[in-house]
Amino acid sequence: MAMETGELTLKKTLWFFVPLALSGIMMSAGEPIVHSGLARLQRPELVLAAYGVSFYAAVLVEAPIIMLLPASSTLVRDSASYRLVRNAMLIINLFLTAIMAVVVYHGPTYDFIFLGLMRYPPAVAEAARTSLGLLLLWPASIGVRRFCQGILIRLGHPQVVGWGTLIRLISMVVCVYIGVEYFPDLGVLIGAGTLIVGVLVEMTVAIWALRRRFLRKPLPASAPDTPAGAMSYRGFVRFYLPLALTSFAWVLARPLMLSGIARSHMADLSLAAFPVAMGSMQVLTGHLRMIQQVVVALVEDAHSLDTVRRFTLWVGAGLTGLLSLVAFTPLAILYHGGVIGLRSPTLDMANVALGFMVLMPLLTALQAYNQGLMIRAEDTLGVNMAAFANLGVLVLLLNVGVGATALPGYIIAACVLPAALAFEVLILRRWTQGHVRVLRSPAPRP
């Protein structure tokens, strides 16, 4: 999508990015909201650790459904494509719900994964199982929500996505308050209940908005600009599988990190501190992934390429500076101690972990920028390979750190995470050079 009037400028790029970023920022705020409530319960270390384990496990099961938003916004052009993508979404939802149910309610399977494979402490694994049972409908709810939101964005109603996320946050704040104030004995169930209520509320808003739009103006029976192959299930799989694999590699990193922490020195405290530090970091980095959409939409030639690249560097460097200000000043104590409610030694560990991750905003911005260039050139296989390279380096360094050093797990994980991301950025940058040369070439492009 080119800018409608005039050349692309940093100001125009910013205004294009802001609506996308606001939704991402509000989404990232969900974890600190839950952490702030759970940290005020009795035995907060156990509760926070069990919540982190169950949340990351649910997100892992959810991974194949995450990319339904770009899929529906790209493929749904008429009533036929709507039915096809909707049916595919329902099939994926049923499959993921069945997997979640087997893991949670079949004892030997759960014990093999969480005690044998992941090696979580028994008390943490047992508490996480109760939480996962409440999150059984989490993947399906995410799938329906993102399917509807993608169509709304395509139909010109992106503001609905932001309003839905805002209502979700409000409902989560209410749930956390009620749980901590009136039902503190529920422990980790307060966190799981807050998550599921929030996503069900946001899903309801998306469904309502989409139905209202369809009542006013139904989709056409057929659209002349439908891409070849998009109207078959085989075409959908060909389009969607690379996207699903990329999100799966990113999501898989979280439980693998927790598994490594669980085998490290000071495992229980590290499992409580590191997810909080990572959630705080995500508040300033999660929305930067939207730069990928900015690149795909706005980069058309050498001038727009340079503009978006400068924008990426400015935003990434600015948020890195902001995160450094929080991590290396008393603001970290004020935030983790006053807002989240952590107490020492978990408070000190979370502050230290955050300090090791200050480069994550810049690295995330560069990752999204280079991914956008590759997706724009339809090089989705390269995006997948770089994501799995990141995962491989993360697992390798994490195991080396746990096996060869006596460092606490929260320090190892906080060092490994930016190192693996930096490796992915280097690979992506190397692979995007050809696409950049094409954009800078004065020869006409198809």
Describe this structure in words.
- This protein has 2 domains: 1-28 and 263-446, no CATH class; 39-244, no CATH class.
- The chain starts with 9 loop residues before the first helix and ends in a 6-residue tail after the last helix.
- The protein is globular and about 60 Å long.
- The chain has 19 helices and no strands.
- α13 (291-298) packs antiparallel against α14.
- It has 446 residues and is mainly alpha-helical.
Features:
446 residues; mainly alpha; 2 domains; globular; disordered N terminus
Low-confidence stretches: 1-5
Order of helices and strands: HHHHHHHHHHHHHHHHHHH
Large-scale geometry: globular
Total of domains: 2
Helix content: over 70%
Structural class: mainly alpha
Number of helices: 19
Largest sheet report: none
Find the count of extended strands (DSSP E, 2+ residues).
0
> Compute the gyration radius: what is it?
22 Å
Strand content: under 5%
Q: What would the average pLDDT be, to the nearest integer?
A: 85
First-last Cα distance: 15 Å
Q: How would you summarize what this structure contains?
A:
The protein is an all-alpha fold and 446 residues long. It is 79% helix and 0% strand.
